[in-house]
Amino acid sequence: MGETSMTSAIHGRGGGGGACGMVLHILRGRWFSVFASFLIMAGAGATYLFGIYSKEIKATLGYDQTTLNLLGFFKDLGANVGVLSGLLAEVTPTWFVLLVGSAMNFSGYFMIWLAVAGKIAKPKVWHMCAYICIGANSQNFANTGALVTCVKNFPESRGVMLGLLKGFVGLSGAVMTQLYLAIYGNDSKSLILLIAWLPAALSVVFVYTVRTMKVERQPNELNVFYQFLYVSIVLALFLMGVTIAQKQVVFPHWAYATSASICCFLLFVPLFISIREDLVLWNLKKQPPSEIRVEKPVEVELKEKEITNPEPEEKKPPVSCWTSICNKPPRGEDYTILQALLSLDMLVLFVATLFGLGSSLTAVDNLGQIGESLGYPQRTVSSFVSLVSIYNYFGRVFSGFVSESLLVKYKMPRPLMMTIVLILASIGYLIIAFPFPGSLYIASIITGFAFGAQLPLLFAIISELFGLKYYSTLFNCGQLASPIGSYILNVKITGMLYDRQALEELAKKGLTRSDVKELVCIGTQCYRNSFSILAGGTFFGALISLVLVMRTRKFYRSDIYKKFRESVDADARN
């Protein structure tokens, strides 16, 4: 039985009332599905913790910075090449996508933990690259299963939904840090083990909860999302306060356990909001149709007559594949995969993402080594990673909610917000390139915020320009530029410039590479040239994104959500 027909059958049986029917309605309700998606997303940001456990990999396995950055590239490659999960979602139900992602997450990160913990013989570098690529790629299956499904269930609130879901991904680094400190103590090797089992378990628990449903319009829909936002802001502020406190004071184990418990409680507050909203829908469905009266405007009645007595349509001759690719539909309509990938709009997005997200990933991956090179202690470096995670969240919800508000109220093109974010990011990289006392705190905040803001904007723009029919594949294709940019900017530029500077310092001391196990560079000069290049590249990406602003300004001045409202109204009449 297909997913849609199964859902209809269950709703049909649950519609009779009673406690069992009500519970079933809640568990299969779209608001409970949103809560489940929040938890899955809260465990889907393990890649952002690379800055904490990468030092352990480097020291245990004896890697230099170039090799470590190569691992970082394969992590980014796995995290951003989600075409497989997108194509799989086109032909299989959501539960299967989530199960595949769960298996990949556990197998990839568990093998890394076995290697770092010395449980197996030292793997070859390409083995470690494969493990981290598989583990990181699993988050695309979580994204495709939860994020794409929620966007399809709430198409008129897609910017807000994307901001919230990607916001929880942004918080996941700080959340999982608190959990690992409470469960395992200050042992970064065990953090890898937590990354292996926790996200996999979340996907398995909610495997049948997250699915595509019939779109329903609620007058208070946006207010509910704002309630979710307020809860997530409280969680983010709590995590920020705890992170700062842990930097100043050495916490005993009971304090770590307390902070983790509060964190878990705040994560489950959206559950109560979801149950409340699903109960409202349950009570509405129990009312007889005669009690629900809706006044129809004259315009709606005229439209209904037109739908009831449509004019006969002429059959169009079949169109060849090449003609279909060349004759693209208007923006906002459903593009085919090839039509979208071969469009100029997608090319502009690709270039802007290559520099924007490629630079952001480079900055996040090197944050631990940047702190070390500037003389910060390890505990402070961990707090930088948590700050990036928290402000990553603020960037995501800010870009989601604010860009949606500006779009609805002032018809501001969403790509213009991306231009502003990229300019902000380039300022953050310049602060790293030319540091001053305490500058890494400011750079962590700016970098985390700008990194987080880019993803909801990218995903929303793709859904708006190319439609939702093949969104599972297109949004995964849209972020392919990210690992390419990461490889060029991280491995080929940042890593090599760091190692070159470190070798120069060794030469001044009369040492060679074979004389030391770990290649370390200390000083402000270690990242100056590389992050100056990142700042220039990101600013170029901002200029490129202005091309998309000019190309789409007419489209964004129109009512881009009109067709979704008309579709829901037509379903309601039927």
UniProtKB/TrEMBL annotation:
<keyword id="KW-1133">Transmembrane helix</keyword>
<feature type="domain" description="NFD4 C-terminal">
    <location>
        <begin position="343"/>
        <end position="556"/>
    </location>
</feature>
<feature type="transmembrane region" description="Helical">
    <location>
        <begin position="254"/>
        <end position="275"/>
    </location>
</feature>
<dbReference type="InterPro" id="IPR036259">
    <property type="entry name" value="MFS_trans_sf"/>
</dbReference>
<dbReference type="InterPro" id="IPR056555">
    <property type="entry name" value="NFD4_C"/>
</dbReference>
<dbReference type="Pfam" id="PF06813">
    <property type="entry name" value="Nodulin-like"/>
</dbReference>
<dbReference type="GO" id="GO:0016020">
    <property type="term" value="C:membrane"/>
</dbReference>
<feature type="transmembrane region" description="Helical">
    <location>
        <begin position="531"/>
        <end position="550"/>
    </location>
</feature>
<feature type="transmembrane region" description="Helical">
    <location>
        <begin position="190"/>
        <end position="210"/>
    </location>
</feature>
<feature type="transmembrane region" description="Helical">
    <location>
        <begin position="95"/>
        <end position="116"/>
    </location>
</feature>
<protein>
    <recommendedName>
        <fullName>Nodulin-like domain-containing protein</fullName>
    </recommendedName>
</protein>
<keyword id="KW-0472">Membrane</keyword>
<feature type="transmembrane region" description="Helical">
    <location>
        <begin position="31"/>
        <end position="54"/>
    </location>
</feature>
<feature type="transmembrane region" description="Helical">
    <location>
        <begin position="222"/>
        <end position="242"/>
    </location>
</feature>
<feature type="transmembrane region" description="Helical">
    <location>
        <begin position="162"/>
        <end position="184"/>
    </location>
</feature>
<dbReference type="InterPro" id="IPR010658">
    <property type="entry name" value="Nodulin-like"/>
</dbReference>
<feature type="transmembrane region" description="Helical">
    <location>
        <begin position="415"/>
        <end position="434"/>
    </location>
</feature>
<feature type="domain" description="Nodulin-like">
    <location>
        <begin position="30"/>
        <end position="275"/>
    </location>
</feature>
<feature type="transmembrane region" description="Helical">
    <location>
        <begin position="337"/>
        <end position="356"/>
    </location>
</feature>
<feature type="transmembrane region" description="Helical">
    <location>
        <begin position="440"/>
        <end position="463"/>
    </location>
</feature>
<dbReference type="Pfam" id="PF23262">
    <property type="entry name" value="NFD4_C"/>
</dbReference>
<keyword id="KW-0812">Transmembrane</keyword>
